[in-house]
Amino acid sequence: MALTRKKKDSLLAEYESGFSQVSNAFLLGFKGISVPDVTELRSKVRENGAGYLVVKNTIALRATNGTALAELQEHFQGPTAVAYTDGDVVALAKVLTDFAKDVPAIEFKAGIVDSSPVGAEDIKELAGLPSREALIAKLLFLMQSPVTRLTRGLNAITRDFVVVVDQIRQQKEE
């Protein structure tokens, strides 16, 4: 069934609203995937606060003009879906790669991370990174470590002084 002009305009508006403020997105090929698998993928992506759109390539190309996705226009070929987020890009990459392990029909085409283009192999590497929360926790631990060591060192000086004074007291008592 051919799309009417009105339907094309509504799709263009939907794509533009989805892509306009996005700095993190992944293009996926999904040739041969079943409807239940797509439904499951959509729900997993949405659980992470991200969006998922199956796009018409010609309309998507028009919608990406002036956005970060404009650099990926050559990848809008064949069946294409866009998973995008303004939140944790590592979490989205993990969801997509985990799903792609179970459903081999999903293939990564390219992506945008912080408005910079990345290749398909980089998306899999990105999924291997720790989550944002884990990185923040590690950073806080590393920032606290010198302070903790300094405090322990200062406490050791006081403790050693008290031990020496106590030994002197014991020697004088004998």
What top-tier CATH class of the largest domain fits best? Alpha Beta
Q: Mean pLDDT score, rounded?
A: 84
What is the oligomeric state here? single chain
Helix content: 55-70%
CATH architecture of the largest domain: 2-Layer Sandwich
Major sheet description? 5 strands, antiparallel
Topology order in helix (H) and strand (E) letters: HEHEHEHEEHH
Flag low-confidence runs.
Answer: none
Give the tags.
elongated; five-stranded antiparallel β-sheet; alpha+beta; 57% helix; 5 strands; 174 residues; single chain
Outline of the structure:
Helix content is 57%, strand content 16%. The protein has helices at 5-19, 35-47, 57-64, 89-102, 120-127, 132-173; strands spanning 24-29, 51-55, 80-85, 107-113, 116-119. Helix 1 crosses helix 3 and helix 4 crosses helix 5.
Topology diagram in text:
Elements: H1 5-19, E1 24-29, H2 35-47, E2 51-55, H3 57-64, E3 80-85, H4 89-102, E4 107-113, E5 116-119, H5 120-127, H6 132-173
Antiparallel strand pairs: 1-3, 1-4, 2-3, 4-5
What does this structure look like?
With 174 residues, the chain is an alpha+beta fold. It has two domains: 5-129, Alpha-Beta Plaits (2-Layer Sandwich); 130-174. Helices cover 57% and strands 16% of the residues. It has helices at 5-19, 35-47, 57-64, 89-102, 120-127, 132-173, and strands spanning 24-29, 51-55, 80-85, 107-113, 116-119. The chain has a five-stranded antiparallel β-sheet with strand order 2-3-1-4-5, with helices on both faces. A hairpin with a 2-residue loop joins strand 4 and strand 5 (116-119). Helix 1 (5-19) packs across helix 3 (57-64). The termini are far apart. 25% of the residues are buried. The mean pLDDT is 84.
